[in-house]
Amino acid sequence: MPNALIYARISKDKTGAGLGVDRQERDCRKLADRLGATVLDVYVDNDISAYGGKHRPGYRAMLDRMTQGGIDYVLCWATDRLHRRVDDLREYADISIKHGVLTHAVTAGIIDLSTGSGLFAAQINGAFAELESTRKSERVKAAQEQAARAGKWLGGRRPYGWAFEDGAPVIVDDEAERIRVMHDAVLSGQSIRSIVDGLNSAGALTSYDGHWTRNTVRQVLKRPRNAGLATYRGQILDGHASTFPAIVSEATHRAVVAKLTDPNRARSTSNRVKYLLSGIAQCECGRLMVKATVKPQATSLYRVYKCQASGRGHAHKKMEAADAHVLDVVTAILHSDAGLDATPSSNDDARQQLEDEAATLRQMTDEAADSRFRGTIDQRQMERITVPANARLADIERQLADLHAASQTPGVLSAEGRATLAAQWDTGDLEERRRILRAAFGVVITRTPPGAARRFEPSTVRIAVKANAGPLTPEQVETVVAAEVAAGQTSITLLP
Ligand SMILES: [Zn+2]
């Protein structure tokens, strides 16, 4: 039975998947089983880089064992675990050949160093490993230089909040105070616009005597330097302090950056959307549509909504026509009793009937109780009236509860809900109307049928009435697209 040694090494520069020593050893033991070999010893060097001539006690011990003879295989996970320098390889190859040891790597198969091609392959592997180690140490050096440079001022426009004394940054008190106020303002929910207005109306100037804009405020607020953090090419370098003294805490800095990059904030404040349906209308593929400008000829230019995925399968629609259509249809829906079919009104009728009946029953039981009190009927007579009446009343309560639930059920805007929305819709600005659309409606734009390219085709802008807020789900889009609409007709789908 052949004998095998296992060598495993883990270095700081972990590459590949799962190169822990345990994993290397486990894979090598499986390999030994396949070779029918007995594992005599396992040699491990942990967390020591082979490059740079560092002492590898495990490796040295294994070479000693190899020279004692009786070893058929050295098993390793990959040849670069075994040796990373060509010099290492020469010594290893000499011992291997002299004592007839074959090297078997889990990832590379058998390497017979006694043959020319095997030795050559191992040399190539070793040479690459050596090159990679060299590159790595160059990268580390470069990174250290970058880190050293990152915290220093490399010249250019003076950053707001600091001045330089003998080349070293020092805090400018009034500017630093304004920076802190700006941070507080963002965290308390103020818009960038109001911060800009506040700075400009107070006569504050930027570090180059300019007026504040939304951009300059955002730039100043997003600087990691504010919290004394060093950066290189936009990345915060952990563990490297900037030479700039901090103006705010790191926690404050991170909270403000999180707020500034929150997509909800962009929508509600600084980048106010000016288009009714952008980010609301959905292509028939389900994606949200965005505003785009089309310039078919040198003299003409118009706006469209287009699918975020462009191409043949995706819709685009002239903005003006789509907006006008949606405004018309939604206004009609909100103001019309018939707009949502008969469901809500028949619901109301049924509720009215039940409530009338309940009122009658209550009157009957009240009168029966009065009669009993006056002594004109006896207990049994009273119960013959009240027991069935109370049973029927309980039944009616259940039915009314069901109807109420139904009126809250998706797809049906109750009459009251519709009246409230109609009032908000009629008086609301663009943002308010977008809010209402997002809350209760869906807009799906389908592709323009062939031959209808020049005129607006109402059947391609489909309105859904829904109960869930936000965009339609893929299933809902499918339902809306599947609804049959004749050319020239408006489509309104009630979604469950
Ligand atoms: Zn699409």
β-strand number? 16
Mean pLDDT: 77
Helical content class: 40-55%
What is the terminal separation in angstroms? 73 Å
DSSP helical segment count: 16
Please state the overall shape, judged from the principal axes of the Cα atoms.
extended
Looking at the overall shape, the CATH architecture of the domain at 3-145 is 3-Layer(aba) Sandwich
- The spatial strand order of the largest sheet comes to 2-1-3-4-5
Structural class, by secondary structure, is alpha/beta
Which radius of gyration do the C-alpha atoms yield? 39 Å
Contiguous low-pLDDT stretches (5 residues minimum) are: 13-18, 266-271, 341-346, 408-412
Text of the CATH class of the domain at 3-145: Alpha Beta
Content of β-strand: 15-25%
Q: Report the sheet with the most strands, covering strand number, pairing sense and barrel closure.
A: 5 strands, mixed
Could you say which small molecules are bound to this protein?
Answer: zinc ion
The CATH superfamily of the domain at 3-145 bears the name Resolvase, N-terminal catalytic domain
Stated plainly, the CATH topology of the domain at 3-145 is called Rossmann fold
GO molecular function: DNA binding; DNA strand exchange activity
Pfam family, one: Recombinase
Domain Recombinase: 159-266
Protein name: Serine recombinase
